[in-house]
Amino acid sequence: MKRRIVFYFLVVFSFLSVFAGQEIALKDLQNPETIAVDRNQIYITEGPCIYIYSRSDFKLIKKFGKDGQGPGEFKTISPFMPLRLNVISDQIIVKSMEKISYYRKDGTFVREFKPPTNYGVTVERFGNLYLGFSGKQDNGKLLNQLVIYDQNFSVKSVLLEAESPFQGLKKGTKLFSGNIQFQIIRDRCFVFSEDDFVIDVFDLNGKKVKRIKIDYQRVKVTSAIKQDTEKFFQENALTRQYYEYMKPLIFPEFLPAIWVLAGDGQFVYPVTFLREKNKQELMIIDAAGKILKKTRVAFDLKSLIEPYPFSVYDQVLYQLVEKDEDDFWRLRIIPLTEEK
Predict the structure, then answer these.
(1) Mean pLDDT over residues 65-92, rounded?
(2) How far is CA 273 from CA 64, 145, 234, 312, in A?
(3) Spatial contact of 270 and 258, defined as CB atoms under 8 Å apart
(4) Residue 47, by phi and psi: left (phi above 0), alpha (psi -120 to 50) or beta?
(5) Contact between 336 and 282 (Cβ < 8 Å)
(6) Which pLDDT band, with edges at 50, 70 and 90, does 13 fall under?
(7) Per DSSP, which regions of 165-278 are E strands?
(8) pTM for the whole thing?
């Protein structure tokens, strides 16, 4: 009886430790690119492969996907255009180059189709419509657009336009600008596209129904930030081949208020550039646009402009982190409600 009691408390303590920030080794992974989470499972992409893990015991349930264009096959350009997953509904929606695929939550193939847009990897379901990116030229300038598509992928309305950071050879690249991000909560789309802390909320008709705006002191772009960013583009194996085409790098005076706009279909989670002692500022905003909490959480970065893969679900942060001591990738889990 005594042994059973001790074992019970060890199990309970282990469970609580995991949700206090313990890292779980995932030995199957080599170079994960994205992560998504739902009530029961964790989904991780790596090239054309998708791993499904149990959220209760973190065991691998299934691995599927390979390079190709047929059912169960995906085309990607890692890491610039990795697979994108949406697991908010009762299906896994996989967005790859040239097609959108639907799977049951156990990884069983259902159907796929090819949207008539070059921006299919960015498309999200928005009610009975689709929301995604497009682009155009206007007076010699390249513009990025956030648009609502109808069911035939004809443009129904343009929500926002922003000048593309890259305008062509020898014209330079404007860093930390022109970055439109969005998250969907039911019949509302939350969009960040400005430098200041401003999130616009649109309905299914493309009408702006709310603006979330707070006074926010943005992080100044220092010489150290410039040097680190330039070094990244020059030395990174994935970007150095494009560095000569990107020059000159054009920096703003201040970084944007929001770095990444994350979401889980229930809440929106703005991640800012404010960082102290390896902790990043993160906020929780509900469907009504109310800021529920501001917190700082342990958050690993590959570089100033790239975090390690992460997702936030039900106010819990899930991030894949790389550890040198055993070469295994680890899943870090931190409840945001417990962070100060």
Answers:
(1) 87
(2) 35, 24, 22, 17
(3) yes
(4) left
(5) yes
(6) very low
(7) 173-174, 181-185, 188-192, 198-202, 208-213, 249-250, 260-263, 268-276
(8) 0.88
